[in-house]
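Could you join me in thinking about how sequence relates to backbone shape in a protein? Would you write everything just below, so we can both look at the same thing?
***
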Amino acid sequence: MLEPQYIPLELQQRDVDILGVVVDADTDYEARWTSLRNILKENFPKIPTHMPPGGLCLEGSKRVGVWIMPNNGATGMLETFMSSLIPNTDDPIWKHARKSVDKAVKLGAECKALHSDKSNIHTWLAWHDPPGQGIGRAVMRNCFNCEAEMALKFVAWFKELYQIS
């Protein structure tokens, strides 16, 4: 999706009226935003210099929306976003999952610092019923707080992009 011609080619498709782009910032939020901005600039010359904190929706002959995980302004990924949806960050199981990941790394687990949020979320999910469910299924089973501030911001962006009341 981040190849320079991918998004422009998608926008040329007849059956595409709205294109939503959700990507991880990973380790360099600014580089990710600059890359996306440069790709979109040709089709949307009025694209803002800075990513709006509530996500970006652009209107032209087509609609394009951009959300950079976790929050349109920080490094991270989907799992970083999902960490903000933990129902209770004081929950002893969440705290224990994070401590377990830290200890596993100290014992030699091959978990890169970049992926600590992935390890934390998936360890926490491993201790739910059923164990080891993916994020999508965990959302459907109400393991996360879908009323959390970041969840509401993402839903608001999604509704604006796809013009849902």
Summary: The chain has seven helices and three strands. The mean pLDDT is 95.
